[in-house]
Amino acid sequence: MKFEFDYGKPFTPFQQLMGVLPDLMYEETSPIIDFYPRNFELDMNGKKQDWEAVVKIPFIDQKRLLKAMAARDVRLTPEERERNKSGVLSTEFVYDSEIDENYPSSFPGVFPELTRSHCRASPFNLPVLGGDIQLIFGLVEGVQLGISALAGFPSLDTLPHNGILDYHGVNVFQSESKNPSMVITIIGKDEVPKTSEIARNVLGQRTFHSWPYLQEGIVAAVSDDMFKYTLQQVGKSLRVVHMPHQDAVKWRRQADHVERHYSKRYGVIIGGVEVLLHIRPLKGLKHLDNGALVKDYEAPEKEIVQAYQTAVSQVTFEDERFLERAPPDLKVDFPVGERVLFLGDMHYGLAAQVSAINEEAQTLSVILAYFEEETEETFKFTKAVAHRPTGKWWPSPILCRRLGISALALSRITSTLLVQLNDGSKTNIGLSLKFESRGLKVLGYSKRNDRGWEFSEKTAQVLEAYKKAFPEVFKHLENRGGDLVKSRELCPTAEDPDAVIKGMKKWLKDEGLNDLESVSLFADQLEAETCQIIEKLADDILSKKTFQSIKKRRLDNVPRQTLLKPSQAIYRLQGQVFEPGHRVVMVQDPAAGGVPTGMRGVVVGLGMRTIDVIWDNGFMGGSTLQGKCSPYRGSTVPFSSCLNLTRPQFTVSERGGPKPVPQNVFRPQLGPRPAVPMQHYQPSVPGRQQTAITTPHILHKPKTVHSAQSTTVVGSNGHLKYSGVAKGVRPQPIQQQPVSHRDQLSNLLGGLRLGPGPVVNENGGAGHITQAQAQGNLPVVHSHPSAHQLLSTHPHIQGKTQNMNNKPGLSAAKGVPFPHRGAHNGVPAFAHGGAPNGAPRGRGGRGGAHRGRGRGRGNGGSSAAIQE
């Protein structure tokens, strides 16, 4: 099949505008009024909201449009006719070092001219198809797809899988789909390695999580339903160390959530999750003092969990943005003439230029340029912000007394208050000034401190007017404590409660309170009046500076880490702290419309990742910061783009001293440490009563939780196997049972089996012999040394243990040691016990079979036996 098209003629600017502007759109006599129907049909196509529908209006016939406009061309003025012509379609800009001139403004009086332009502009005609340029059908040669796709392009082929079309109830928009979905099943390995083997292979290694999008991270821990495996420093080497969970039920919930999320959110069946990888995602690259770039991973508190079967160990193409780089040569990293910022003690943040390189000493010589009064400028801005008028703020209890309402009523009306109308619809009549759970506030209206919420005088006046307009609603705000109330509950005496609620909504809109922007509790903004004071102060300081007042100073033997290049800012300036009124200097290279490098300004607003700055000079791309400053003087920039001059945080000694702000460096000896509980600490003991504990280094015996039974759904294309968790079935909670004092003591010892002679002959709890120890691949790590001391002093343990230091296989009665023996696959298991008064020898307890079985022989009787 062949298609041929005739080249058309581009519309002129006015022809494009007249297609969507009056008077041809509105006048009844317009020959093309049918292009713009007032009433039209909506094709919902299964959608719920009108804005999601397909609007069924006719396509515009360009011949009729141009004919209707041709009759109106005579109305154009000569100037408008000139503007209505098609000019040069494209312009090519080429850098030319020989050109150094000012480029005239394209909009004089609004846009400034470009100074010292090194660019040459010339007309450019875009290539057209035909001749040497032919249209290529399909993919261009060399395109990488599937498992070989470039970094950033997701592919399902990175894991073996199959898919069928079946009913699965995928939940995307808060409701499960009722139609068939393409359900993908990951094909797992026939034999899953043991958890200890997985831990040895992946701990401290990088992996790719969030399949199929494959984001890099490093494995900090591996866990199953019994243990968590981490790398820890043992002597001079790293070893895999396992520790039991304190809450096995929590681990099972976490594993089930991973499986359920993939299943119900993405339609991917990953199978039962028996092993979790604890991953610290890649944060970016970190710049070292020697100029090298190394990968930097997130802190432990930002650790994520990933099912082992969805992790990918390697990719075909690495992300070039995050490739580590060796230290470059000094002359390459800092060539002569390079413009940098100085991070020394005495001249922090000053502009400098490299003048010489000493390759033998690996140091540089730089020339600083500065004004003598720049240090005093910083204190002037800080003082102006510190003495600003902040207005009156009302704590919640005092505001309640002023308004004559309760604390509950104030809390509900200042947050989100949904009211259900008679037709079932819901509307919000709250001011939406605070969001406790999400940690949000509205600048100028609300804020939170350690004493609770406070509201501005402006908020108090709004509430007084709101209450005066709708007194009955405020009177009944305490009628119900839920988040959703009915209109009749707030307006019991009104003839039409819905009309009252709609009137409140209209009142909020008329007062401009419908679209107030909520920000983080950590965000802050200076008032417009203070911003004007800061801008005026900057103008006064700038007016006193002249070219002749610039001072220069040469510094020799400067180490490379004392200098900051603009390209290094994104790596080196992470984690800075700012406050309103802080003096900053722009470090990063300016992008299109960006702030020029070296320009100074003052912080007037804080966001989560950005700061609002009023700069000393205007620049192309600047803004008014929503009316807080003059045009082109303000902008919002990332934290890492500026250097804080008021509070230096990256000061480097001119002799190469260390940075005062340490950066978190990933070391693989992570994982849980034996916690030292506080006085009223209560550990979580699944399935049993919790016992208060004050003894340190106590571990807790986890309880095995059985997952939901597997279910098989027969689809049109075959069998689809997935567990009840994948279908959204949650495991049943464990019933609480009465616990004897002996069992409480067993819980107290964190899984160590205790009991008198007769009980010792019964099956014990889960032992501490792991899979790795059973195979003899890893050294045994004794994880509860404090148990010996506790046993020897506890009044309910009749035997006294002695001579047990570094001898976990011995027990004693009256100080006489008796060896205990036990084995699993040739690996010794350990038990401790004692028999007072020379009682006959008895059988020791047996460890549970989940991670290996341990046997011990003790001199029975009524003494205690401890199993590992």
From TrEMBL:
* Gene Ontology terms: cellular component: nucleus
- InterPro entries recorded: 5_3_exoribonuclease, Rib_uL2_dom2, SH3_12, XRN1_D1, XRN1_D1_sf, XRN1_D2_D3, Xrn1_helical, XRN1_SH3_sf
GO terms, molecular function: 5'-3' RNA exonuclease activity; RNA binding
Composition bias type Low complexity, residue spans: 831-840
* Region annotation (Disordered) ranges: 800-868
Please report the stretch or stretches of sequence annotated as the Exoribonuclease Xrn1 D2/D3 domain. 330-552
Domain 5'-3' exoribonuclease 1 SH3-like span(s) in chain numbering = 576-644
- Which Pfam families does its entry note? SH3_12 (PF18129), XRN1_D1 (PF18332), XRN1_D2_D3 (PF18334), XRN_M (PF17846)
Q: Which biological processes are named by the entry's GO terms?
A: nuclear-transcribed mRNA catabolic process; rRNA catabolic process
UniProt name for this protein: Uncharacterized protein
Species for this entry: Cryptococcus deuterogattii Ram5
